[in-house]
């Protein structure tokens, strides 16, 4: 069967339209209720190709993890960032992943075990609720997750409380993620929670903004 050029472009155009509409719907609904990346999509976030596409090593470099640190990732999913982060904080450091989805946490624990990572803990919970004592972490980071949380202000206040003095909050956003937050929005939310801007790496379509606990 031969498809004419006109038919091909019509089909491609319709597919792009569906993607745009789905993106806008997901973005709007995320303001009303929690709509995290579903567990069945976790497999698409794994592997060396996605590490390259999503800039895994670049993101970790920008966060600035160091040996001996205690680190929390909010919304780690299957561990694309958290598993290599566990290696970066050795010796003496540990990482914790807080995720609202049990399925993601099971996948994270399985992949961590396969990678031989023993300094990683997975905890189920809502980021807007207290889960840790004050001054627990050196670094807390989000990667394309902040916009998934309807009450972003509450989540950042919990991060502020859980960080040690001068601890770092790091937020990475990648366009066109449906939950994408602009640099101006991230800065406004972080400052409202009490954080002090430190540095922003990258361009608007892929940036990491680091803030310090004042």
Major sheet = 7 strands, mixed
Give, in order, the helices and strands: HHHEHEHEEHEHEE
CATH class of the largest domain: Alpha Beta
Give the structural class.
alpha/beta
Mean pLDDT: 87
Residue share in β-strands: 15-25%
Count of structural domains: 2
Outline: globular
* Structural Rg: 18 Å
Overall description:
By secondary structure, the chain is α/β, with parallel strands linked by helices. It is built from seven helices and seven strands; from the N terminus they run αααβαβαββαβαββ. A seven-stranded mixed β-sheet has the order 3-2-1-4-5-7-6, sandwiched between helices.
Throw out a few tags for this protein.
214 residues, alpha/beta, Rossmann fold, 2 domains, seven-stranded mixed β-sheet, 7 helices, 7 strands, globular
Helix and strand arrangement:
Blueprint: H1 5-30, H2 48-53, H3 56-63, E1 70-74, H4 82-88, E2 94-99, H5 102-114, E3 120-124, E4 137-143, H6 152-162, E5 163-174, H7 183-192, E6 195-203, E7 206-213
Parallel strand pairs: 1-2, 1-4, 2-3, 4-5
Antiparallel strand pairs: 5-7, 6-7
């Amino acid at each position: 069967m031969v498809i004419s050029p006109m038919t091909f472009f019509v089909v491609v155009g319709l597919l792009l339209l569906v993607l745009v509409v789905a993106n806008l719907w997901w973005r709007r609904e995320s303001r009303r209720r929690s709509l995290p990346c579903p567990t069945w999509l976790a497999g698409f976030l794994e592997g060396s190709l996605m590490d390259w596409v999503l800039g895994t090593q670049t993101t970790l470099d920008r966060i600035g993890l160091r040996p001996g640190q205690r680190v929390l990732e909010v919304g780690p999913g299957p561990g694309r960032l958290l598993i290599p982060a566990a290696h970066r904080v050795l010796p003496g450091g540990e990482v914790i992943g807080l995720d609202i989805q049990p399925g993601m946490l099971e996948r994270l624990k399985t992949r961590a075990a396969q990678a031989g990572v023993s300094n990683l803990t997975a905890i189920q919970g809502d980021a807007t609720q207290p889960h840790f004592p004050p001054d627990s972490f050196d670094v807390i980071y989000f990667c394309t997750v902040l916009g998934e949380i309807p009450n972003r202000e509450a989540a950042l206040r919990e991060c502020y409380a859980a960080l040690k003095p001068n601890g770092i909050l790091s937020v990475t956003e990648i366009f066109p993620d449906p939950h994408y937050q602009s640099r101006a929005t991230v800065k406004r939310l972080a400052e409202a929670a009490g954080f002090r801007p430190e540095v922003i790496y990258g361009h608007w379509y892929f940036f990491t903004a680091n803030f310090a606990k004042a």
